[in-house]
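Go through this chain.

——
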Amino acid sequence: EEVQKIYGTLDIFEAQEHGVSLTDLRRISQIPLTKLKVILALLKKSGFIVNRARSTYALAPFAKKNPALVLNLANYETKKSYDQSKLVMMLQYCETQSCRRRFILNYFGEDYEAEFCGACDNCLARARSAAARSNGERSAESVEPASFRIGDAVLHAKYGSGTVERVDRDLVTVLFPSIGYKTLLASAVRKEAQIA
């Protein structure tokens, strides 16, 4: 979607010999500056855009003739980002010390109310070591869980709006439409209702 906005803006302003400035691209496309720079760097690296003057951009000659190619690249990069975020989630599943049932249900968008299922390897290990933790020290399990629920709409300063997919103590895993899954400290995101 962002690449389409950038491509459309560059196409409209193609008649300008000096190209379109970064400031104008940002103002017209309404894309955050960091994200805009990343997309422009990707398009430039791929040869779809060129610099005409200092900090101005224009479509490369072959990109004007084949806009579908530019959009296919954007779709590929978006899919690649999503796929990488899914791999990260698989690694988190393998490495979690929390309830695996809760993790997998949260991944698929289901809220699992119980903190522990009592059936997965982690919950069974936790039950076996309960006597060992009775020394009065505060354990990791006693940390207050985040006040988020599966499906909450949240906002992050860098990644924008997303949906909570998993809650684990002081961490939340959020699905951002443009980049995929990110696991963040709960304090790094806010419920969208709190922002208004």
Notes: Residues 67-95 form the longest helix (29 residues). The CA atoms of residues 102 and 114 lie 8 Å apart.
